[in-house]
Design goal:
It is built from 16 helices and 16 strands. The chain has about 425 residues and is an alpha/beta fold. The strands form two sheets. Strands 1, 2, 3, 4, 5, 6, 15 and 16 form an eight-stranded mixed beta sheet that branches. Strands 7-8-9-10-11-12-13-14 form an eight-stranded parallel beta sheet. Strand 12, helix 10 and strand 13 form a beta-alpha-beta unit.
Amino acid sequence: MDSVLQPMGEQRGDRIRIYTNVRLATMAAGMLGLGIVEDGAVAVEHGRIAYAGPASDLPQALIAKAETVDCEGRWMTPGLIDCHTHIVHAGNRAHEFELRLSGATYEEIALAGGGIVSSVSSLRAASEDALLAQSLPRLDALMAEGVTTVEVKSGYGLDVDNEIKSLRAARRLAETRKVTVSTTFLGAHALPPEATSKSAYIDYVIQAMLPAIAAQGLADAVDGFCEGIAFSTDEMRRVFEAAKSHGLPVKLHADQLSNLHGAALAAEFGALSADHLEYTDGDGARAMAASGTVAVVLPGAYYFIRETKKPPIDLFREAGVAMAVATDCNPGTSPLTSLLLTMNMGATLFGMTVEECLIGVTRNAATALGLQAETGTLEAGKWADLALWNIERPAELVYRMGFNPLHLRIWHGL
């Protein structure tokens, strides 16, 4: 066998690469806790995991044609997944941050013409190339902390051409970097300045935007913002029914500022996820558990807008709702590009456990994107999306702040 002590380049031909002398947190559902294997090995062939488990059980047939990487006792996890972002946006909203520090609320800023509508003006003025250029540093920051899959929402264009422009820029991120990008159409994000009514705008989303985006294959899912300052459950129901007619799964910004029973609506449509959820009640939690809808909690937004109502983590635990954690990277309410810090916030602000945080940025995050068959755990058959860490125990990934212990990031075996 070849012995390779340092990270290597692209895998050659049909050779198998085996990572040895490594401690694994597999995140596999069939194992206890984080699925820890103290003396582990991971074999990679053609970009996918051929074996992950105890080194002592590594099949001889793999060893015979393998080159090895000595991980020197480091920890390996699946590559991290940020399952809720708005990283494709133009400009920033630092001035709103100043207003908020002076006492203005999120709703007051939005009603005064700020908030999402402010970002709409900036995005409409930017070219697709400019959008890509502005978004890449945000993606790079996530990737530098071991992120191998990222969800990217539109929602700052709010007309056909600009929503398409946003989603094209998001798709191009994956052409520019070694990363998986899952795109989400968020046309029902806010009312654009030219709209005459919410009902008329939802008609436009359903009749013009969604068909054009679906025809071009630019979206992997459809999202919406169900809130008093955005759209009602009845309006979102119409969007979801249209998404279903185009064969697209749905997800929902739900119950962030009030309880409009958005979580229950998401569950009714078998949504991949419902996100934010600060005001979700027991009925909503139980509905999500029954439908398999993942609860995506977003502590960055909670922290940044100085919310006081926490998502009901205990209710989710009791109901058996899978929980994911994401940055919600956006220019107005969560300008956050660190999934490691996000996990720390999930633990310190929401009382999540280390296990919940780590599974929440791997296995459950993959499920929130409908990608659980492809990534999110160290299991044979899945993409070799891996992160190798200079840590003594997995809790360090949640415990530390402002420190990045990533040694090596591997995407699709590369």
